[in-house]
Each structure stands twice: as C-alpha cells, then as structure tokens.
Design goal:
It is built from five helices and seven strands, in the order βααβββαβαββα. It has 156 residues and is an alpha+beta fold. It has a seven-stranded mixed β-sheet with strand order 1-2-3-4-5-7-6.
C-alpha cells in the first residue's frame, strides 16, 4: 500500500468512497478542501487503485482537525484507516500542532475504537450534530512534540 498526497485525478475515486461511506454528500467540499489545504489531503492506493483517504487542516494555532476519513468497504479491516490517520497526525506534528480533534457518530463503534486505539479521548457530545439528528462525539488527542527527545539529547 502507498499513502500519498491527493492529486486532482483522484477526485472521482475519492467521491466514490465518500458516497459509499457517508450519508451526507457534498462533492464540492472535497475539491474546495484540496484547493485550500493541499498539505492535509492524503489517499491510500493499492495496485494503483484508491482505497481510502483522510483530510485534515489546521483549525487553530495549535490544533489540527480531522475532517474526513474513509476506506473502501472491501478494504476495511486491513489497517488502512490507521495508517491514513497516522499520516495526517504526522503531518500535524510537522506543522507544530499540539492537538488533533475529530468528531464521530455516536453509533460508529468501529471508528470510535480505531480513534481510541490511536490515543484519542472522547471529550464531549454534540447533541444532534449530524443532519439526521444523530449525536456526534468530539474526540481529542495530544500530539507529542516532534523530535522533542532528540532536541533535549542534542543540547546535553
């Protein structure tokens, strides 16, 4: 599997995964996101086929926001979501961000477990967050300082 930055020719594949994964669709969001946040849009490719994507952006001075993560149904359970998440978290660290935030549907137990396994903690519930009235759980993760240990060792 290869994880790389999104390119405009990936748009159709990303939209197909998005429509398969989510009930709320807005294809223009993805192209707008790419135009404004090229450094935070990654795709996973297997055998030259896009099988997943993650999108994130700087939402505050020290915080990154995971906007969307999806993996094609037949590729779920292979660690692709974890690898995509690790890629965006590493990108956040390289930007000097201290925390990462995301929201997840209260009913999405698989995603909640993935995020917990990656160190995210549920912080609060946003009532009726989604258009169908379902609650969203806001989760956060503290990011470790990039090369913090190496910086200290270098100064000793």
């Amino acid at each position: 599997m290869i994880i790389r930055q999104f390119e405009p020719y990936d748009f159709e594949d990303v939209l197909n995964i998005e429509m398969e994964s989510f009930t709320e669709h807005n294809p223009f969001v993805y192209m707008n996101f790419y135009e404004m946040n090229t450094e935070g849009f990654f795709v996973a490719s297997m055998n030259n086929r896009i099988v997943g994507f993650v999108m994130g952006y700087r939402s505050a001075v020290n915080e990154g926001r995971i906007f969307s993560l999806a993996v094609k149904e037949e590729y779920k359970g292979r660690g692709i979501g974890s690898q995509l998440m690790q890629t965006i978290l590493n990108a956040f660290q390289q930007q000097g961000l201290k925390t990462a935030t995301l929201e997840v549907r209260a009913s999405n137990h698989i995603a909640k477990k993935l995020y917990q396994d990656l160190g995210f903690i549920a912080c609060w519930v946003e009532q009726r967050y989604y258009s169908d009235g379902e609650n969203g759980i806001i989760m956060k993760k503290q990011l470790s300082p990039l090369c913090w240990t190496n910086s200290i060792q270098a100064s000793l």
